[in-house]
Design a protein that fits this description.
heterodimer; A: 75 residues; alpha+beta; 5-stranded antiparallel beta sheet; 2 helices; 5 strands; 40% strand; B: 762 residues; alpha/beta; Rossmann fold; 7-stranded mixed beta sheet; two-stranded antiparallel ribbon; 34 helices
């Protein structure tokens, strides 16, 4: 499944990131890499963007970008 | 020979790490803003003293990465590499890191290491890390990174002496630590490319290879010829064929190195403690509460610049007119007096009148940014703004522009993406600002009075004028983003910083700086154009001034008497509300009003002679002649040359339209915001007739003028600020052209359709 499909409060581990472009470079610079654990903090009132927690900090990104991040659900 | 140059240290770091606070703590009052050609971001330079040794310090813009995508982002790289003009290469770099968010902060540090410059780490926010239950072994960290690490608390001024000691040590030792190494296959390509891109530092060649369409590629390929571009493409192809993801090479290498370097230095708690940020975020980004609080905050932002700044602006206006009268009293009637009082003092007043709004807005923005709410506001608004191709951070600049586009445009600095920022700046003046209000109230009051049309129709027209900007701004933004400002899809990846109490000094400094920068950078431009418009309305002056002086001679005493009577009325009114007055007070006020009216009427015939003379003067002035010459241009809008001329004369500011219409239609000069003056100008407009006795204005003409003023860019201050913020003449000219075209087309449609509808009824 992809990151944008996670619900508020759910945690996941990044499996892979698709594409090879500037967007991917920017996501990876911010620390979204394979094997990282992430938690969904919540979604904006209009449903987009979403807020996640990773590497001791919080980040918000749009669903379109989150859909490129494949995750496995953690219990 | 011994070099006596003052050593230079650069300060870099991620946003939200307390970098500005540290810079202020190090440099104190000893700082100034640096200018670089072609760049719109600001750098600051300061001086600090350590044991009697002066050290120059440069504060570079906060960034997450040194992968430059624009000239703005290239600045930091250029400064550290010593490529910046008139700037020595820094002898060392202080990287400030957020101790509670070490891994991501170290990413930037590893890039700085690659630039081959001695590095010191200032480890800020140790207290925040502790509150989150993180335990850091600073000595071990320093050892494993190979870089001096100094724990500091920038907002409390703690650890600064140790930091300065460390800076002095590294300036002496000049030891460069090693950062992560790239895979061999990648380095082979770098070496190969270096043969074509001779004399370029390895860092830039790596960037050339890594950042597809980045600024290093743009610069190096234009410098070394098209062959280089072909070689870069070949090298990238070989890397991809070897199984690399081009976009991922760097991040994987750096984060792997960081994990290893901090291994054993950081102990995380079993269970992450619930922090204040967690609790606040639950409410502030909540579907209902978050939205409600957002609306309240935005309402307060708007009220502050719209209402709270008003008394200050009124005081400035009052002070300027007092000063104008004072200076005017020293001089005889004539050109010099008019230039000084109407041109220069009026012009300076026109500049400083913006200061309250700018200072207030920047204070609020500084508070919102410093406490961490700004990111949440952008988070909440992003979806809405994304539809226009903008992002959540464009919301506050656009909202502020309803009060005034000048602070609104300046506040667009909070938008990191250069194209989004530019698009926001270019559409901000479409929002109906407070300077349009006098024009709206004048024309709506004169041609759609509530007595005949009730409250609904005038209210609807008001609403539509505001709606015009609200609808057109996103449309224009979207058009710009899909044509002129097209580029890679901007990535909206935004850190949600921890909430904290905003620092008073940071807020005060930022807001005062914004006000000062406006005066310094935009002031002269605004003043100059105001003087020019004054001149084209004054010359040729003939002997009009003498004639007017002669006509005013018998008016002198009666006018003083009128002022006296008005003063008496003000005294009678006092500070009370209408409902608090006793019947005796009310009748006294009425009697005084009647007395004033009677006296004013006795003056009217003489005043009319003066006003007619002024009207004649302006009509034959340069601008008046131009207006008459290009009347055919205004004809399709239903305007005669007088309206056209007044529209041109309001180039310095929209509200000038009211006064110019007043003069040109024989009502004399007055204050654009004054209700009495507005209603007398309004009736003059209603009564105005052309050479053949037809009314100059009717409802379609009034509506066409209204639409024109809702959309035009008759505001030199806005254009001057766009020039200053974009660092180019092209964008203000573009704004003027597109807004004028939009205004003309809008006015044309309004008049033609309006006339058609009107003809159906007659």
């Amino acid at each position: 499944m992809t990151l944008d499909q996670l619900q508020e409060g759910q945690r996941g581990r990044i499996q892979s990131l698709s594409g090879d472009d500037v967007v991917l470079q920017r996501l990876m610079e911010m620390g979204l890499l394979e094997d990282e654990e992430i938690e969904v903090v919540g979604f904006a009132p209009l449903g987009d963007p979403m807020e996640i927690r990773l590497r001791d900090y919080r980040l918000s990104l749009r669903r379109a970008e989150a859909a490129r991040i494949h995750v496995s659900l953690l219990p | 020979m011994v070099s006596v140059r003052t050593p230079t240290v650069a300060l870099v770091g991620n946003p939200n790490t307390g970098k500005t606070t540290l810079f202020n703590a190090l440099a104190g009052m000893n700082q100034r803003v640096g200018n670089y050609p072609g760049v719109t971001v600001e750098t600051k330079k300061g001086k600090l003293l350590h044991a009697g040794m002066p050290i120059d310090i440069i504060d570079l813009p906060g960034t997450y990465s040194l992968a430059p995508r624009s000239p703005d982002e290239m600045l930091a790289v250029d400064v550290i590499l010593g490529n910046a003009t008139d700037e020595p290469r820094p002898d060392a770099v202080i990287t400030i890191l957020d101790a509670s968010n070490l891994e991501r902060n170290l990413y930037l540090m590893t890039q700085v290491l690659e630039l081959g410059v001695p590095v010191i780490i200032a480890l800020n926010m140790m207290d925040v890390a502790e509150a989150q239950g993180l335990k850091l072994d600073v000595d071990k960290l320093s050892q494993q990174l190979g870089v001096a690490v100094v724990p500091i608390q920038a907002n409390a001024g703690k650890g600064l002496d140790k930091l300065k000691d460390a800076v002095a040590r590294i300036l002496h030792d000049r030891i460069c630590a090693n950062g992560p190494a790239f895979p061999d296959a990648f380095e082979t390509e770098v070496v190969r490319l270096q043969q074509s891109a001779i004399d370029e530092p390895a860092f830039l060649v790596r960037r050339l290879l890594l950042d597809v369409g980045g600024h290093a590629e743009v610069r190096l390929t234009s410098k070394h010829g098209p062959d280089l571009a072909a070689e870069v493409a070949g090298a990238r192809q070989r890397l991809v064929a070897a199984g690399f993801t081009l976009a991922g090479i760097e991040a994987r290498v750096r984060y792997a190195w960081i994990r290893q370097a901090i291994a054993g230095c950081i102990v995380r708690p079993e269970q992450r403690p619930v922090t204040w940020t967690d609790r606040l975020d639950k409410v502030l980004t909540h579907r209902i509460w978050g939205t409600l609080i957002f609306l309240v905050v935005m309402f307060l932002v708007f009220e502050t610049i719209f209402v709270a700044a008003k008394p200050f602006m009124d005081w400035i206006k009052l002070g300027v007119s007092w000063f104008g009268d004072l200076v005017g009293g020293w001089l005889d009637e004539g050109m010099l007096r008019s230039l000084l009082v109407d041109g220069i003092i009026g012009g300076v007043g026109g500049v400083i009148v913006f200061i309250p709004q700018i200072v207030f807005l920047f204070a609020i923005i500084a508070v919102l940014e410093d406490c961490g709410y700004m990111a949440r506001a952008a988070f909440l608004m992003d979806r809405l703004m994304a539809r226009a191709g903008l992002n959540g951070k464009s919301f506050i600049p656009l909202l502020s522009s309803f009060a005034c586009a000048v602070p609104g445009i300046m506040s667009a600095r909070v938008i990191e993406n250069p194209r989004d920022r530019l698009a926001t700046i270019l559409v901000a003046p479409l929002m109906s600002c407070s300077a349009r209000l006098p024009v709206y109230t004048l024309l709506i009051g004169a041609f759609l009075p509530t007595e005949t049309y009730g409250l609904f129709v005038p209210g609807l027209v008001f609403f539509c004028l505001y709606l015009l900007g609200i609808i057109l701004a996103p449309l224009v933004a979207w058009l710009l983003k899909s044509t002129l400002l097209r580029g890679e899809t901007p990535v909206f990846v935004m850190e949600m910083p921890l909430y904290k109490v905003p620092s008073v000094t940071t807020v005060a400094r930022r807001s005062l700086e914004a006000g000062w920068m406006f005066i310094k950078r935009a002031g002269t431009l605004i003043l100059a154009s105001m003087v020019i418009v004054w001149a084209v309305l004054y010359f040729p002056s003939g002997d009009y001034q003498e004639q007017i002086t002669k006509l005013e001679e018998p008016l002198k005493e009666p006018r003083e008497k009128l002022e006296e009577l008005r003063g008496e009325l003000d005294e009678l009114r006092g500070w009370k509300f209408e409902f608090m007055r006793t019947p005796t007070e009310l009748s006294a006020i009425e009697a005084k009003k009647a007395e004033i009216k009677k006296h004013a009427e006795s003056l009217a015939p003489l005043e009319k002679l003066v006003n007619d003379k002024r009207q004649e003067w302006k009509a034959q002035s340069c601008l008046g002649q131009v207006g008459q010459a290009i009347e055919p241009v205004f004809k399709p809008l239903g305007w005669n040359w007088q309206i056209g001329m007044a529209a041109i004369a309001s180039f310095p500011a929209r509200e000038v339209m009211v006064g110019t219409l007043g003069i040109i239609f024989g009502e004399g000069e007055g204050d654009a915001g004054d209700e009495d003056y507005q209603s007398s100008v309004g009736s003059a407009l209603r009564d105005a007739r052309d050479g053949e006795g037809r009314p100059v204005f009717n409802i379609p003409v009034a509506l066409s003028v209204l639409v024109f003023f809702a959309l035009c860019s008759q505001c030199v201050s806005t254009l001057a600020v766009i020039k200053r913020e974009t660092n180019s003449w092209g964008w203000p000219i573009f704004t003027f052209v597109y807004m004028t075209a939009l205004a003309y087309i809008g006015a044309l449609i309004t008049y033609q359709v309006g006339s058609l509808i009107a003809s159906l009824f007659t």
